[in-house]
């Protein structure tokens, strides 16, 4: 199916499918191995212990590479469209690309430095990845509106902005609740201290992560 897509639409399609598989596969293995509780662990919790840690690290690094390729193609696409329409400044397009690439670096840090091995570096990588990602999709939503109606439909723009707003809203409590947790561990149970903070923060983290996935899904039509 990916090979039959016109243009370079297979790139964001591959990014979406690979990233979703990375989250789901590591989660299933971690739960079956008894390393995490099945009820909403952190994404990083599902890639901390072997054997899932190796799979998680490998697949997230590939996802980061695919994201770099997708963002660069998106940058080139906007530059080409902008030659005839002049709907956005080239500097703004470049700034958006740089923010996106920064988020990809954060993903690489998350994949390389496990949560329990080097928690401070892992947390910095996660903050960079999620923070830069939220800024990137918000900027892309704004650029999409500016390109209407010639290069985008308002329906697609509304979807992108809705995803961006949802991700922004979820990102803030994710950080706030995570900062209230006094211990670094992955095997949480409901009767433990800080479990509520962990649970709420994890829900927000999954919301933001799949917000990114669904946002890149909307790129497929553009890349055709």
Automatic annotation (TrEMBL):
Where is each CWH43-like N-terminal domain found?
8-224
Record-annotated membrane-spanning stretches: 7-33, 53-73, 94-112, 124-143, 155-177, 197-220
A Pfam family in this protein?
A: Frag1
- One GO cellular component term noted in the UniProt record for this chain: endomembrane system
Q: Which keywords fit this entry according to its UniProt record?
A: Membrane, Transmembrane, Transmembrane helix
Family to which the UniProt record says this protein belongs: Belongs to the DRAM/TMEM150 family.
What name does the UniProt record give this protein? DRAM1 protein
Q: Which organism is it from?
A: Pluvianellus socialis
